[in-house]
Amino acid sequence: MTAALIVFSYLLGSLSTAIITSKLMGLPDPRTQGSGNPGATNVLRLGGKKAAALTLLGDMLKGIVPMIAASALGMGDATLALAGIAAFLGHLYPVFFGFRGGKGVATALGVLLGMSWMAGLAALATWLLVAKIFRYSSLAALSAALLAPIYVSLIRPAPELIAMTMVMSTLLLWRHRGNIQRLIRGQEDRIGKKQRE
How far apart are CA 183 and CA 106, in angstroms? Predict the structure, then answer.
């Protein structure tokens, strides 16, 4: 059962909401237009708010569903953590789309919400606060990623779940390395402008 859940989580994560939404709505492939990143921010640029909202919701559900399924099946924290990592890795490296996925912010948030709504809301509040103050989507995502393990350690301090969150946060930082370099150079675009994501 554990192995089946992990495989299911990865395959669900591998469904690229950005690409599917873009195809259904007749939009350009987000992998070849804009920033080239199949995520909600790039879809917003290419197709507007409705397409971006659908992408964001889909990406979050890819994280929420495996965690709820694991809990409903009575799985322990270790299996819960593995399911979360599998869904997250599916989004980053989707088997259905040449292992070229998004940066994982929305799916990571979904994992946190599915595991502990309080930890998820704390991470979301961090993103919203930093985004409102500084107007950088990437900085908001990086701030939430850095603080997420702390939130989990305070709200649901299971070692396996803390480790899962740390792995996701580390991968989020790696996937945003280009954004970090642009932030340091003062070249990152603010929210509301054409962003490179």
Answer: 21
What is the distance between the alpha carbons of residues 83 and 77, in angstroms, rounded to a whole number? Answer: 10
Contact 20/58 with Cβ under 8 angstroms? Answer: yes
The conformation of residue 47, written as its DSSP 8-state character, comes to H
Give 21-59 pLDDT, tens digit per residue: 999 999 999 999 888 889 998 898 899 899 999 999 999
Interhelix angle 177-185/159-175, nearest 10 degrees:
60
| pTM exceeds cut of 0.70 | yes
Q: What is the pLDDT of residues 64-108, one digit of tens each?
A: 999 999 999 999 999 999 999 999 999 999 999 999 999 999 999
Q: Which of 1, 5, 176 is closest to 86 using CA atoms? A: 5
